[in-house]
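Our consortium's second objective concerns turning raw sequence data into structural hypotheses that experimental partners can test. To show how far this objective has progressed, the report includes one record in full. It was chosen at random from the queue rather than selected for favorable results. The single chain below, 200 residues long, was entered without modification.
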Amino acid sequence: MPYFGFITGQPYETVEAMKAGEKEYVQRQQAQLEPDYLYDENAPSAEEILAAAKYVEQAGQDRAKQVSDERAAEVFVQLHGEYVPTPRNAMLLEYALKSRGILDDRYVTVEEIESVYDELRQRGLLEINAAKAQDQHRSEVTSQAEEIRTARRASGISRSGVSTRTISRSTRQQHSEDDLYGMSLDELRTLAMREAGVVE
């Protein structure tokens, strides 16, 4: 004998089936009448959520790049005591880095900053601490001389091509192509031997 639900009026085979069917019907009716607490008509769309996620990711990458760039700048300043950190110097370095496309989309390295710095410094565009620059130059010359002495001691040669080659690279006179064509063969041979460190 079938059982009929009081609310739905539908026939059920057992009392348990009738109770379950009636309960499910009532729950469906309530769900249609009550708004879903998870649904919000003012909630952002999937596209807006994706755009926000991309924005947060980009902001994180930008912050990481900024931290890395600041670290490279701090290391550069520590390595170059002669550099005076003025707004003008910073602006010139930044402009030169941007003109090379370095600051646009990748992390800047200390070597890249040094490359731009050397170029600007040779052109006399940067303000530097002259006393510290002289001390640094003196220190580099002393270090180079010590390397030559060490190389001479290690090789057992008192005046080898090692030292003169090293020195000649930094102090040799530059000759133009016209100068070289104007020299006699003996002059060219002497110049070549002097550059090679065979004669002084």
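The partners drew two points from this record. The mean pLDDT is 81. The beta strands are 3-4, 11-12. Both points have been shared with the crystallography group to help prioritize constructs.
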